[in-house]
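INTERNAL AUDIT FORM
Audit reference: QA-55
Scope: verify that the stored structure record matches its stored sequence.
Auditor: D.O.
Record contents follow.
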Amino acid sequence: MGRWIPYIIVSLILLVLSWHAAAQHHYRRLLWWLGCWGLATLTWTPVAFSFGSDTVGQVTTHWIAGGIWVLRPFERASMDTSFWLNIIMTMPQGMLLGVNWPRLRWPQWLLAGLATGLTLETGQAIGNWLVSLGRWVDINDVLTNCLGRRARCWSRVVGPPTHSG
């Protein structure tokens, strides 16, 4: 039960933020907070989801603060299904970022993507350290979460050209 405490605390905070957004009829913001809760559920629960391959032995890992860390980005063995699913996982939040804050410029999108990846992985690292969460802390996840946020923005910006007149 103790391993669930960080997730429960984060869920309660996100519940309050969601409730506040709903009470003010800010439904786009409500979706934002629910999306944050979804990401927290996928990354901060003590339940591990594995969509990777059997090449784990080929990934360079380190045991730090009660968890497994992957510090070398883009190793061949780490480019498996879970790598691509990490991009897809954050694409809805990228869409909601654009809906809630439509005037963001490219550098701000990049910072939001990096903040997402760093927040998720830092949460896993802290969870490993405090309650032995048992999650991998992976530099590839930071990069792919950032790319997922950015990919959604690119799909909006790089759409088909419009012709006037």
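Auditor finding: record pair retrieved intact. Residues 106-131 form the longest helix (26 residues).
Action required: none
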